[in-house]
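Batch job 17 of 40 flagged for manual review because the log was empty.
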Amino acid sequence: MKEMTYEGIAACYSPRRMPDRRRPGTRLYVPLWLVWAAAFSFVLIGLGSSGILDNNEGLYAEIPREMLASHDWRIWVIPHLNGLPYMEKPPLLYWLTALSFSLFGESEWSVRAVPALSSLACVAMLLWFGRAQGRPQVGRLAALMFASGIGVAAMSRVLMFDMLLTAMLTAALMCAYRFLTEGALRWVRWTYVFLALAVLAKGFVALVLFGLVVLIFMFGNTRSPSAFLRACLGWFEPWGMLIFCAIAVPWHVAATLTEPSFAWFYFVNEHVLRFLGLREPHDYHAGGWWYYLPRMAIYLFPWSFLLPCLLMGSRRESHADDARLRRFLLLAWLMPLIFFSASSAKANYYLVAVMPFAAFHLAYLFEKQDFQGARGDLARAVPGLVIAVLAAIASVAARGIGPFVPAFRYA
């Protein structure tokens, strides 16, 4: 049976064209084996070599241990810490960590298996997205940048919610882009699958981030208000919405029925009041609107050294068939960054959610530069490239990201 499509959804946008492989730019070549070798090195080597960190990591490791030790199904609905309800976060991370414990036993590396595998999943998605857009080398460079960036490498090796959220939200946004540009129903349904899992990973912040990116992208790429409305209506696909509800709704209903105080504490205190800086207890950082800007450079290190080179060498306008992808990549990391910057609650680990698309955008911009065609541009690029390569080698030689993790969690 021929695959159904939404007529008019993809038509709201410019017709999809095959990438012009003759267009000017830098000819990238990143071996696939290098990408995966770097990813496994930065994420998996020495994963269990350091003890469980105090505070958050120990807390999030104890909850799934109590789930497995308990014979009460309510503990799996409302997570407990030291026998008391702990309702701050949804349960997907706890469930997956409990599964890791049951399969591999309780150890430092099994505690961190979920964020490590989530990071590797992001690497695989960047490779997949690059191939899907006709830019496999951009996807490879983006995956290499993502996996070897010091911020991502650190957050891949500590039990926190944010890497799992990053994997699910990245998958949802990539599938959403393919739905909006191709119109195939399978992509809207996959979008709803990953979006529901993102909600179970860290709550309704996933819906807000997804909505900001997709709605602004649709608004900027449709030709008229009626086309924008048709694009919005395209998301009301019955099977996709049913899939989302089947995954995301049952736990929220069960938790509300199991614990009387859950609804206010989770929906209001943990979402609305946290954003406004009124949540109790006040156990989080505050900062100005610029809080995350220097941290972006730290998270992308050593690849952030390429940013000045790209700015100096950026002279050519993108082709018409590239403009849509460029806008999506920009929105996919900029809108979450703006949201986190506007929030009164600040935390360094929030920033990992913007890294996959930030890396892809940086790799895309690098490919677009005609360093080989403009005299002097290559010379300006060399210092950043040399520093990036040397810093990556030094990071691998340092053996052990663990000591750097507390700085990303609390600083």
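Reviewer: the log was empty due to a logging misconfiguration, but the result itself is present. The chain is about 65% helix and 0% strand. Unflagging and moving on to job 18.
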